[in-house]
Write a structure and sequence with these properties.
The protein has about 200 residues and is mainly alpha-helical. The chain folds into two domains: about 1-70; about 80-204, no CATH class. Helices cover about 70% and strands about 0% of the residues. It has helices at about 1-20, 40-70, 70-75, 80-90, 105-130, 135-140, 145-170, 175-180, 195. It binds protoporphyrin IX containing FE. It comes from Acidisphaera rubrifaciens HS-AP3. This is Cytochrome b561 bacterial/Ni-hydrogenase domain-containing protein.
Length: about 200
């Protein structure tokens, strides 16, 4: 699901840039044709809507699986302020352990929850600007069509920011990449006690 999601996000982001370029939000700011999926806006829209189905179906499968099995709660919660501060201080002192890559530190948990929420927000704002008549109530709630469009763009920027940091840190700890390709170590062999493990993990 992670890799389907990664590929789909790439399609959504680059096709989104193709749509954006037809009618820019930031005057004078364009994306180079190298980064745009689709020769012109209509093609980019086609890609965007094709990717949309994959993203929504895969995203729903991921969320339902994660909630039903308790995986999301186990991996991403709890997040304590003290752990957050400690992780930031440790990272600034280059003291982050990453022996057990199945245990995320507090910063990772926060970022992963953030990017999941950002993806959900993209679907909501995307629906609003796709069907502004049918979802007129949603459009009003978001502050009008143009605001929904800007929110959609800001959501994209947040996800792109996450991806850059996420990929850079994964490359710094290559065993995480292998774990993501192979399915990672079996959860059953991991010790339980969560308190001590909160300090482990890598900051991706
Ligand atoms: C899955 C649900 C989504 C739907 C239904 C959707 C729908 C749309 C629609 C209809 C537009 C055209 C807006 C216009 O006419 O101005 C658009 C633009 C765009 N989308 Fe999406 N989108 C979705 C997800 C995403 C995701 C996940 C991303 C990237 C992370 C993204 C990035 C963009 C960008 C960058 C634009 C161009 C912004 C603009 O100039 O309006 N979209 N989207």
């Amino acid at each position: 699901m992670h890799w389907v999601n990664a590929a789909t996000m790439l399609v959504m982001i680059t096709s989104g840039w193709g749509i954006y370029d037809d009618d820019v939000i930031i005057r004078g700011f364009h994306f180079s044709s190298f980064w745009r999926l689709g020769d012109w806006a209509a093609w980019s829209l086609n890609w965007h809507f094709a990717g949309m189905w994959v993203l929504v179906i895969n995203g729903l499968a991921y969320l339902i699986y994660g909630l039903a099995t308790g995986r999301l709660r186990e991996r991403l919660l709890p997040i304590r302020m003290s752990d957050l501060i400690r992780t930031v201080v440790d990272t600034l002192h280059l003291k982050i352990a990453h022996e057990d890559i199945t245990v995320y530190n507090a910063v990772q948990k926060l970022l992963y929850i953030g990017v999941i929420l950002a993806a959900i927000a993209q679907v909501v704002t995307g629906l609003a600007i796709w069907k502004p008549v049918q979802f007129s109530g949603l459009v009003s709630l978001l502050g009008g069509f143009q605001t929904a469009r800007v929110l959609h763009f800001v959501g994209m920027a947040a996800i792109v920011g996450f991806v850059i940091v996420h990929v850079a840190l994964a490359l710094l700890v290559p065993k995480t990449l292998w774990a993501m390709l192979s399915g990672g170590p079996c959860l059953a062999v991991r010790g339980e006690g969560s308190e001590g493990q909160l300090q482990q993990g890598h900051p991706t």
